[in-house]
Specification:
The protein contains ten helices and 15 strands. By secondary structure, it is an alpha/beta fold. The chain has a domain at about 1-170 and about 205-225 and about 275-285: NAD(P)-binding Rossmann-like Domain (Rossmann fold). Strands 1, 2, 3, 4, 5, 6, 7, 9 and 13 form a nine-stranded mixed sheet that branches. It has a two-stranded parallel ribbon with strand order 8-15. A two-stranded parallel sheet has the order 10-12. A hairpin with a 2-residue loop joins strand 3 (about 40) and strand 4. It binds NADP nicotinamide-adenine-dinucleotide phosphate. Belongs to the NAD(P)-dependent epimerase/dehydratase family. SDR39U1 subfamily.
Length: about 300
């Protein structure tokens, strides 16, 4: 079996590639950096420039599934032009793949795309399932909706389409987790805002295994990829502090301070959604990390 991964060189993609190899699955990948191109029997890189409509069509040879992880990071200052990059790195990329496959006879049968839980409206009390159709009014929700629409167009090519609404991925060295841990380690840890905003988290190992589970079982539709027990910002902060044996002696950091410092990006830490993983569990996926304390212990 051969898959094509976009964003294979990123946090999730790097681990997913390893897991594919363990399962005997070969990986082709599209990269925007020529210096990241490798050419091994089970790991072949191909160049693309989605903004110029440039793509190496050899990337699709014998591929049966595309796992679409490409996307500019959201944790960089949201200037007007960078907001465009966040959006276009998700839509122009999918559109370019679509337009390329539309004009050829393709072996691709399944398009699995990353997506985000930030499509759901911020709430301290609502539990969101995949059935919920309410969409938040934030920039991020707008991005996720456009991203999912770009994925859905592959249905017109008779492909199965899966959208993996991913929570905050907890990993040892990259992503949100080291940024949360750092101030706590230095003794400046404190919950943010009122601390009650939900953080629907997922361990890196689980998100990788979920992609393999979806791939092997041919699952389609929307799946929330978040651990079964989300925590509030305050609980996450306290659990990390407890594990590191650090005191949280500071008061909560007021929301207005974070809005001043981070601008529109402050919604990343001040807002959150309580998201259900039931559909994924009912599909037979067994989480390795159900509760946050063992995940923190593993990562620290
Ligand atoms: N990590 C999380 O907490 C989280 C949560 C929810 C959703 N997701 C989504 O899951 C996907 C994978 O996440 P990740 O954390 O593994 O991402 P990542 O580490 O930031 O990697 C994404 C990859 O996308 C490519 N890329 C970056 N900027 C680009 C741009 N402007 N134009 C085109 N390609 C670009 C890069 O690949 P090349 O350099 O090889 O081109 C990069 O390796 C992303 O779409 C992300 O939004 C992640």
């Amino acid at each position: 079996m051969k898959v094509l991964i976009t964003g294979a060189t990123g946090l999730i993609g790097t681990q997913l590639t390893k897991e594919c190899h363990k399962a005997g699955i070969s990986v082709n990948y599209l990269t925007t950096s020529k210096d990241k191109i490798e050419d091994k029997p089970n790991y072949k890189g191909f160049y693309w420039n989605p903004y110029e409509g440039e793509i190496d069509e050899n990337a699709f040879t014998d591929v049966t599934t595309i796992i679409n992880l490409v996307g500019a990071t959201i944790s960089k200052r949201w200037t007007k032009s960078y907001r465009e990059t966040i959006l276009e790195s998700r839509t122009k990329t999918a559109n370019l793949i679509y337009n390329t496959l539309e004009k050829t006879k393709t072996s691709v049968k399944h398009f699995i795309s990353a997506s985000g839980v930030s499509i759901y409206p911020n709430s301290e009390s609502r539990l969101y399932t995949e059935e919920d159709t309410d969409v938040d009014t934030t920039f991020l929700a707008e991005v996720v909706q456009a991203w999912e629409n770009a994925a859905d167009q592959f249905k017109k090519l008779d492909m199965r389409v899966t959208k993996v609404r991913t929570g905050v991925v907890l990993a040892e060295e990259e992503g949100a987790f080291p940024k949360i841990v750092q101030p706590i380690e230095k003794g400046f840890g404190a919950p943010l805002g009122n601390g009650k905003q939900w953080m629907s988290w997922i361990h890196l190992e689980d998100i990788v295994c979920i992609y393999i589970h979806i791939l092997k079982n041919g699952l389609q539709g929307v799946y929330n990829a978040t651990a079964p027990n989300p925590v509030t910002n305050e609980k996450m902060t306290r659990k990390i502090a407890a594990y590191l044996k650090k005191d949280l002696w500071l008061p909560k950091v007021p929301g207005f301070v974070l809005r001043l410092v981070l601008g529109k990006m402050s919604i990343l830490v001040l807002k959150g959604q309580l998201v259900s993983s039931k559909k994924l569990e009912e599909s037979g996926y067994e989480f390795k990390y159900v509760n946050v304390a063992p995940a923190i212990k593993n990562l620290l």
